[in-house]
Amino acid sequence: MSYALRRLVHSFFVLWAIVTILFLMFRLMPGNPLAAYINEQLTEEDQRLIMVQFGLDRPLYEQYLIYIANLFQGNLGMSFFRREPVWDVLKSALPNTLILTISGLVMAYVFGVLAGAWLATKRGTLAEGVIVPIALATRAAPEFWIGMILLTIFAFTLGWFPAGGANSPGATYASEWSRIFSFDFLLHITLPALTLALYLQGLPLLLMRSTMLEILHEEFITMSKIKGLSPWRITLHHAARNALLPVVTAFALGLGATLGGNVVVETVFSWPGLGRVLVSAVSQSDYPLAQGAFFLISLVLITLNFFVDLVYGLLDPRVSHG
Amino acid sequence: MTSLVSRRRLLLTLTSAAALSSTMLTNQALAQGAGDPIRKIILITDTQGAVPQAFQAAQLIAQAWRQLGLEVEARPMARQAQTDLVWFNRDKWDTTMWRMVGRPERSDPDEMTFNLFHSSTAPRGFNFVGYNSPEYDKVAEQQRQTVDPTARKALVKQAQEIVSRDTPYAFLVHPTTLQAFNQNVFDSASIVVQKGVGIRNFWTFIGATPKGSQKAIIINSGTALQAIHPLYIAGAPDSWINELIWDRLVRIGPDGLPRPWAAESFKFVDDKTVDVTIRGDMKFHDGKPVTIEDVIFSYEAPLTTDKSPMFKPFVTDIDRIEKTGDRSMRIHLKRVNAAFATTALGRVFIVPKHVWEPHLKSVEGKPDTLEAIRDPINVGSGPFKQVRARLNEEVVLERHAEHWAAPKMERVILRVIPNAEAVVGMVRSGEINLLSEYGGDPDVLEKLAKDNPAIKLTQVTDVGIEFMAFNNRRPPFDDAVFRNALSAAIDRNILVQAAWSGYAVPSVSHVSPAIDFWYAADVKAPPTGINLAKEMLQKAGYVVEGGRLRYPAGKKEALQPPG
Fold it and tell me: In terms of domains, do B239 and B265 share one?
């Protein structure tokens, strides 16, 4: 229990450090939010009023204290340009991003784990010689390139899938859930999720393969073979279970990292998600919105990291917290 | 593909021509002695990723200026950093690529004529280059005060002549807007081309007639919206939607000139008094009638309170408004403003008083403004009403059947599509049927139209301008001869071909040929050429010594290149 508590305090400290860096980073960047307001009729007085409205006329430390105090109350502030609470803006983009990220990751990890485990048993064969380079190549290829290729083939040429967006133009649904579970949504998410999966599958595949290779040489595997168990049973039940540990960590961290790193896929497929909100907020110097988006991503990442640390001990008793 | 090849060939010819003439005038007239060598000039440009055309043009311009003996560094900057330097540090830069984008209200030349070059806007406003000419100021003020169009036209022309002579900017091009629509969806005859704006305009939205079963106009925007709000000014796509939901007294017609809209008529009784009569058959989307009280409220909210700061500038010329009848009002102006119909009557949206008066009360005595108020469903009296708005994704509007000019199409759907290549695919598949903006390669679009006869491309010259701004405050750019010579060294036709792939027209002044009523066609572009530029410099006493251009005799270099 004391371990969990220590980890929790540690996580809070990390979060505070991130929040502070975020706060300073945006204010030290060249440019200020007024630049997006340039207007031939904007007088000096108007400019001053905008700064007052945004709270940017106050000294930096005061802005910082207000920011931290608000954060503790769960208030991420108001977006400078959309004049809406930051949380409302993020809330509308979050479901799309979560669903895209999770579908992509799950596809990548299910395929990667199975293919990695299988490949480990095919050491030195032709299959290894062909599949490993392909996995490496898709992992190394830029996401936008994979995305454009998929678009060109499946949307522009074959016309099987739409070229972008999360729903057909003007489609109406009774609720957010019926939208997400509609066939139309499935059609729209297929290509972006596939792009993400192709990009992400390399890590679990190679990680699984190399961990499996190590484990397959361990004594308990030899023991299982002597016991006369089938090779399939040995691979899945004995070796793969043990090889999964590092993959679980990679999955959890991957979820956090991909959440904010979806900008490219979201842009290529015009997917209305968090990544695009983030990019436009940064380019407009919409400090509260950009900070809020980064904060949310950090929060997810740190939380997942925390739980993985805890779960790790349960999955593998050898990991001690002494 | 063809234009790509020709672009490369042009670039080649340009660089080889550079070598030829570089030493021609170097050795003449050096004996009298010369001033200091001119410092390295920093030419700021947008990054290649952000505005590839401007980036390419900047490279070509830098190349041309080097042939004059200048040391030039073309320095790409991110938009934020560029704005911060150029706008907020006005004495710290030399030259920069800059642009004024086209907007319907810029169809009146006042904004470009007055704001860009009047000396009063130099310290903080739009005259960021610091151009200062009492002669020009006078003409700019006069055109604003001359209500008679013919007399005003002569003054606007005079302004164009002075600007063309003094070259506060090197005007480069007016870009061409490339758009497209699907002829299987719309009756081609019902698509209206608005001067300087193109086919994505108010008149198309209400006039477009369906040909088949598709009853929705589906348009695209590369950027997300920020706010659908009658008192908030955000990006371009926001304004496309706003002007469909809320009506205005006056709208800019396809000819670029203001015409009565919600106002049945408006009349200047004298230079400072305007009588307005509104239509009697207007209804808000919630069914309530539009009254003269609503209209007066819409103008008084920004005028008499500080709760609508973004719209305040449009009404600053108004002294007071009096109701003169059930459907009429009289506007008294503080000063004469010839552009009043466009810049005030054509800007302010009519909002329902029964919705916004309570909002106004709710922010009284607080630092908040009306701009922060969000109505879940916006109520206007325009030809379309809001159904749904997901600002990162799509906005859906449907026709307001009770509008006196009800649209023929059932819906307008705006899709936010940041990927320019995907947009082409969507035009082909029908996911978009009216391409309202396009940032990709024009050749790709041309090929699409060639392969699909249903897709019709349209082109209009923009009201906007691309230019090279000289910092008129800093030597040597404070010398009009120097600015003229630098401008003369730029071949606009090469820029059009090599940087804008043919999708632009050379620019002479701040008034675009798109607004032909105000454009002075006989203000011709001054002749250009490297040798001509050299002669101009030489006549003014600038000399080239050891390959470096120097100031005229006795002039010292007091400045360092910007850091």
Answer: no
